[in-house]
Design brief:
The protein has 792 residues and is an alpha/beta fold. It is built from 28 helices and twelve strands. The two termini are 35 Å apart. It comes from Photobacterium ganghwense.
Length: 792
């Protein structure tokens, strides 16, 4: 009987599929017959028009707070980006950017770079979500995907249940995306009636729905961003003049600056209302419209005789997962002059753009002083390392499972690099410092990895010999080798926190002592940037992404080894053995050999039987004057007894900690009258035997060693869960939290204190938390992303 029933269901499914496919073709013919042929429309209204004002004041805030929170980056479902008027008009594409198995690099589809108008995007395979036929109210609402998706949600709101049925709702990042065109919408509506937009979240309010439908019926007139005001334009002209001097030295310095800041959002901190810009390469000089040079990488051949570096206004909504603000001002310009132009040196000729040269910054910029390059990166070290995380991608497990879930970062004192011997050493090692991007975006992984492993081994042996001579007998090998931020720079201490396939970089030493720490010197700092930011192509083939991941293994271990060199020799080996439990045979040989060749004794006298903790304490004390306390939850504006309760949350460990998502954002409403809500982030740190397994991370997990880190404020872009609690109820929350030991009790906890994705008040809570974030940190804040919200 069961077999017959399954057969009937299978036959019915085939019949329905054929019916819907036929309906799609028929619907397509009808659309053309009823509303005319589709063609891109002119929707961008002049900034001063009534249509632009309606879009900017009424429509855009709804789109940002209800649509952009899921549709804003490479990982936006269907490549649909609501973060700009141009992105909305561009529409959707069924191809995934994150496709780790492709044999050949994909064509790039970067907004504002790879096409300049909607017609060009249509040629690149993007389908309209707005009506592109006759511009009548009926056509605009019946022949537009966005309008149909909104109406579908209003007709089929979320079911009245706290947790959505997993068989009916898929929230995994690699889920099958439908991406229906307007011709396919009828079939989509029949097959997935509950999948209207916003997907898997509460419907928007009736008032918001009316605003959007009215706007769509009018043909969806939009406006791009307003141009910069006079104050911003004056500083823009000053900086463009500065970066486009004619001398060879000026051209080379500007190329170096561009290749390090091309993913940052630059702003002029001297104006009252900053505007964000991208630094781009143009064929045209300042004073003329930008003629963008669109290449995969910032160091690819521009194919012009002269490159100009220009400021292009950011035209997309600022979202946290891609936002890296970088301040420019008179002090910054003076600093660049002091680093690169006051020292006496000559530039004989500009380096070319051959991949094997341009992908290796230690060769391409060898004529610039090492000290100047290193200090330029150190001045804004958080921004540089943040580029590893937010730069060319929004997420990526393949590249991020190469780092531990939480570790501290320190830097070698730049005075040590201000030496002709150091520059000569890097010149001698040029052949051993080649980078994977020299093979561009199509790479054969195994053969290239073997070659890079050999060259890294040669480099480390040479480096260890160089250091052995420098620190002979352990002389000077003390905490003095660690940069102290010159007494004022809070970039001297950083914490990196991985959240599975995303990560965060923040100033300060966050949390308790970590399992590992890195110490970055100039060459390592530079190579990581060119590996993971300047040289990484998210559209590259499987081999390119895999070799990048495997190469990062070497660089991570080099940073760890730099830290371990400050410990007694026998402890170095013990720590590495602990950090790389069950490592494969090739990696074990590398650890026991090349990475571990440095044998000079430490110059530090240790007094306990736990030298690593002792060393971390020394570094904490040394760097305390410049270590940012911003994320210390004990600084929150709450009662002392409440802060004590927060300490209990921070102390969660082991398999109990494993129950919680990577990031939980918490809003506590203080008991004190008129006090603003306090925001916190509870971070789960997943423990591993080692982080060198490429594809089977699960087998390396050590669940019993998981722990949590609680911080003040929002840290991370992708909340997995929200909690909302009044300060007076914190004791009850902590008590129930201590009893949360399995999935059932976790769900009970969320029912009491959580704001689930199904909560009728979800959108009001979302607005409140995003508003608080923006008010607390107006320059740094960006909209959060809800693609990781759990359904539990």
């Amino acid at each position: 009987m069961l077999t017959i029933t399954k057969s009937i269901k299978r036959i019915a499914l085939v019949a329905v599929t054929l019916l819907f496919s036929g309906c799609a073709i028929y619907a397509g013919i009808n659309f053309d017959q009823i509303y005319g042929k589709a063609a891109p429309q002119q929707r961008i209204a002049p900034p001063a028009s009534l249509q632009a004002n309606m879009y900017l004041t009424e429509v855009k805030p709804i789109i940002e707070n209800r649509c952009v929170v899921c549709h804003a980056c490479y990982d936006a479902p269907c490549q649909l980006k609501f973060s700009s008027a141009e992105g909305i008009d561009r529409g959707a594409n069924k191809e995934k950017v994150y496709e780790g198995t492709r044999l050949l690099a994909a064509n790039t589809t970067r907004m504002f770079i790879d096409a300049q108008n909607t017609a060009e995007w249509r040629d690149l395979g993007f389908n309209a979500i707005l009506n592109e036929r006759a511009q009548t109210p009926d056509a605009n609402t019946q022949a537009g995907v966005m309008a149909r998706m909104l109406k579908l949600k209003q007709a089929h709101p979320l079911p009245q249940q706290a947790i959505l049925t997993p068989d009916e709702w898929d929230f995994s990042l690699d889920r099958n995306q439908q991406c229906p065109t307007i011709e396919e919408m009828s079939g989509f509506e029949l097959n997935y009636p509950q999948w209207g937009m916003p997907y898997g979240l509460p419907q928007i309010s009736d008032a918001e729905h009316e605003v959007l439908m009215n706007w769509l019926s009018l043909g969806a007139p939009m406006s791009s961003v307003s141009p910069p005001d006079a104050a911003n334009l004056a500083l823009l002209e000053k900086w463009e003049s500065f970066l486009n001097g004619d001398s060879l030295k000026q051209q080379l310095v500007s190329r170096y600056i561009y290749e390090h800041l091309f993913v940052s959002h630059l702003y002029f901190s001297e104006v009252k209302q900053p505007v964000f810009f991208n630094l781009v390469r143009s064929r045209t000089a300042p004073g003329k419209p930008i003629d963008l040079i669109a290449t995969r990488r910032p160091f690819d051949d521009p194919d012009v005789d002269r490159v100009y570096y220009r400021f292009q206004q950011v035209r997309e909504t600022i979202v946290d997962k891609t936002h890296m603000p970088y301040a420019l001002n008179a002090d910054k310009m003076a600093r660049i002059r002091a680093l690169f132009f006051e020292p006496e040196y000559e530039i004989d000729t500009l380096p070319g753009y051959e991949p094997e040269l341009a992908a290796n910054p230690l060769s391409a910029f060898r004529q610039l002083p090492v000290n100047a390059r290193y200090r330029f990166m150190l001045d804004n070290a958080q921004n540089t390392i943040m580029g590893f995380i937010k730069g060319p991608v929004c997420r990526g497990q393949l590249t991020l499972n190469v780092i531990n879930d939480r570790f501290w970062v320190f830097f070698v004192n730049p005075e040590m690099s201000d030496s002709p011997k150091v520059s000569a050493f890097y010149d001698e090692q040029a052949a051993n410092l080649l980078m994977p991007a020299e093979h561009e975006s199509n790479t054969l992984p195994i053969s290239n990895w073997i070659g890079y492993a050999k060259q890294q081994g040669r480099f480390l042996r040479a480096k260890n010999a160089f250091l052995a001579d420098t620190f002979k007998g352990g002389e000077h090998l003390t905490t003095a080798v660690i940069w102290d931020g010159d007494g004022h720079n809070d970039n001297a201490t950083l914490t990196v926190l991985r959240h599975f396939d995303s990560a965060t970089v923040t100033k300060g030493l966050v949390g308790t002592h970590p399992k590992t720490a890195w110490v970055l010197d100039y060459s390592l700092f530079e190579r990581i940037h060119y590996l993971l930011v300047a040289g990484f192509d998210v559209y590259g083939n499987f081999g390119h992404q895999l070799v990048t991941r495997m190469y990062m293994d070497f660089l991570r271990m080099e940073g760890e080894s730099n830290f371990l060199s400050l410990l007694p020799a026998d402890i170095r080996h013990q720590e590495l053995a602990n950090w790389y439990q069950d490592a494969d045979q090739n990696l074990s040989k590398f650890i026991q050999g090349d990475i571990n060749q440095f044998s000079q004794p430490t110059g530090i006298t240790f007094k306990t039987d736990d030298p690593k903790s002792e060393l971390l304490n020394m570094l904490e004390n040394k760097l305390k004057p410049v270590s940012s306390p911003r994320y210390d939850y004990r600084q929150a504006t709450l009662q002392p007894e409440s802060l004590a309760l927060l300490e209990q949350i921070d102390a969660l460990k082991g398999t109990q900690a494993t129950l919680f998502p990577e990031l939980t954002f918490i809003m506590v409403e203080p008991a004190a009258a008129k006090s603003r809500p306090q925001l916190f982030t509870l971070i789960r740190n997943s423990a591993h035997k080692n982080v060198s397994s490429l594809f089977d991370e699960e087998s390396n997990r050590l669940y019993e060693q998981d722990d949590m880190t609680l911080v003040k404020g929002l840290l991370g872009s992708y909340p997995g869960a929200f909690w909302q609690v009044k300060e007076a109820v914190l004791p009850e929350l902590v008590k129930q939290l201590s009893q949360t030991t399995d999935e059932k009790s976790y769900q009970a906890f969320m029912t009491r204190f959580g704001v689930r994705r199904t909560d009728p008040n979800f959108w009001s809570f979302s607005d409140a938390i995003n508003t608080l974030y923006r008010e607390n940190y107006p320059i740094e804040a960006g909209l959060l992303d809800y693609n990781r919200l759990e359904n539990r």
